From TrEMBL:
Keyword Lipid metabolism: no
Cofactor(s), names only, from the UniProt record: FMN
Domain NADH:flavin oxidoreductase/NADH oxidase N-terminal: 10-102, 108-292
Protein name: 2,4-dienoyl-CoA reductase
Gene source species: Sporobacter termitidis DSM 10068
Source domain of life: Bacteria
InterPro entries on file: Aldolase_TIM, OxRdtase_FMN_N, YqjM-like
Alphabetical UniProt keywords: Flavoprotein, FMN, NADP, Oxidoreductase
GO molecular function, one term: FMN binding
This protein's record includes keyword Secreted: no
Length: 325
C-alpha cells in the first residue's frame, strides 16, 4: 500500500510526495510591463510549493514563439519562469511546464505547418529544460490542437500525421528522440490526455504508444469530451478520476496522475492508498487553499473549495469565495 508521503522517483527525479498541483491557467493575473508572466505568478506558485505539493505542473504555456523568443517566451518571461522553477526547488518540489499548441483546426494545416509546430514544441521543451524545469508536459487534452491530432474521429489528415494510431501520435513521438538528446537523461516528458478519443480503447491505445516510445508520465484529464457515466459503488471520486484509474491499468509501467474534483483528504488518500494511481492531481482545491497539500498530508483543517458551478478563476480570481474568506 502506497502512502501519500511516499516519494516517487520518475526518471531520476524524486517527487517528494504523491500530491500534484495540476495546471491551472491564471486568466486574471497580469504579467509585468506588458509581458505574459510576472511576479504575481512567482508568488502564486511559490505559495503552492510551500503548501505541500510534491510536483507542480505550471499552467498551459503556448509553444509558439519559443524558437524566436516571442509570445510567452520573451527574455523577461523566461526570467520569471526561471524564478518559478527555482522557488519550487527551494521547497524540494519538482516542477514541470505544461506546453500547448493553441486551438487550430488540424485538418486545415499543411504538412509544413505541422512540422513547424513540432519545431516550436522542441524549442519550448528545450527552453524549459534550460530554465531549470524538471520536465515538460504536452497538453493533449481538452479538445485543443494536440488533442485533435490523437482523436480518431477528428483527425482526417491523409499525411503521416493522420489515419493510424501510430501516425496520430507522431506529432510528439516523432520528436521524442530529439527532445531526449537535447534535454538530458533526467528531464521528464509527460502527456496530459483523456481516455475517450472518441472511445476509451482509443485513449488506452494512444497512451500505450506514448509509454512505448518513452513518455514518462500520463496525467489523465478528458479528451474531446468529459467522461460521463457512473463510477463503481464505493468509488468516492468522480468519473474523471475514475478514468485516471482505468488508464493506470492500461499503461501500468509508467506513473499515472488522476484528477478531477479531488477536494477532501479522504478522496486523495483513497486513490493513493488503494494504489489506484500513482499521483493525485489537485486543481481548484489548491486555488482555494495554497496549503492544501500540507493539510492533507498532516490531516489538519484547510479552506475548502466550494466547487462553484464555474470556477471564478476562469474570469476573476479575486472573486473566488474561498479566497475572500
Ligand atoms: C481556471 C482553470 C484553469 C485551468 N487551466 C488548465 C490548463 O492550463 N491546463 C490544463 O491541462 N488544465 C487546466 N484546467 C483543468 C485543471 O487542471 C483540472 O484538471 C480541473 O480543474 C479539474 O480538477 P479539480 O476539480 O481539482 O479542479 C484548468 C481549470 C481551471 C478551473
Ligand atoms: S472560485 Fe469556486 S470553484 Fe474556483 S477555487 Fe474558488 S471556491 Fe473553488
Amino acid at each position: 500500500m502506497s502512502k501519500l508521503q511516499d516519494a516517487l522517483v520518475i526518471r531520476g527525479n524524486t517527487v517528494k510526495n504523491r500530491i500534484v498541483m495540476e495546471p491551472i491557467f491564471t486568466f486574471s493575473f497580469h504579467g509585468d510591463d506588458g509581458h505574459f508572466y510576472g511576479k504575481q505568478h512567482i508568488e502564486h506558485y511559490e505559495a503552492r510549493a510551500r503548501g505541500g505539493a510534491g510536483l507542480i505542473i505550471l499552467q498551459a504555456t503556448q509553444c509558439f514563439g519559443a524558437t524566436d523568443g516571442t509570445g510567452q517566451w520573451t527574455d523577461y518571461d523566461k526570467e520569471i519562469l526561471k524564478a518559478i522553477a527555482q522557488k519550487c526547488h527551494n521547497y524540494g518540489v519538482s516542477v514541470m511546464m505544461q506546453l500547448a499548441c493553441g486551438d487550430s483546426d488540424i485538418n486545415a494545416l499543411t504538412t509544413g505547418e505541422v512540422l513547424s509546430m513540432q519545431r516550436e514544441m522542441v524549442s519550448a521543451a528545450v527552453t524549459a529544460f534550460k530554465l531549470g524545469f524538471d520536465g515538460a508536459e504536452f497538453h493533449f487534452a481538452h479538445g485543443y490542437t494536440l488533442c485533435k491530432f490523437i482523436d480518431a474521429a477528428y483527425n482526417k489528415r491523409t499525411d503521416e500525421f493522420g489515419n493510424s494510431a501510430w501516425n496520430r501520435t507522431r506529432i510528439l513521438t516523432g520528436i521524442l528522440p530529439e527532445l531526449r538528446s537535447k534535454t538530458g537523461d533526467r528531464f521528464m516528458l509527460g502527456v496530459r490526455m483523456g481516455e475517450f478519443l472518441p472511445e476509451s480503447r482509443d485513449g488506452f491505445e494512444i497512451a500505450k504508444l506514448f509509454e512505448e516510445t518513452g513518455v514518462d508520465l500520463i496525467n489523465v484529464s478528458f479528451g474531446m469530451k468529459f467522461p460521463d457515466g457512473d463510477v463503481p459503488e464505493g468509488f468516492i471520486c468522480g468519473p474523471m478520476a475514475y478514468s485516471g484509474c482505468r488508464m493506470k491499468q492500461a499503461v501500468d509501467s509508467i506513473p499515472v496522475i488522476a484528477a478531477g474534483g479531488l477536494r477532501t483528504e479522504e478522496q486523495v488518500r483513497f486513490l493513493i492508498e488503494h494504489d489506484y494511481v500513482d499521483l493525485a492531481g489537485i486543481g481548484t482545491a489548491f486555488l482555494a487553499d495554497p496549503a492544501f497539500g500540507n493539510a492533507v498530508l498532516g490531516s489538519t483543517p484547510f479552506t475548502k473549495c466550494r466547487g462553484c458551478e464555474r470556477c471564478l478563476w476562469f474570469t476573476d480570481h479575486t472573486l473566488c469565495p474561498a479566497r475572500k474568506k
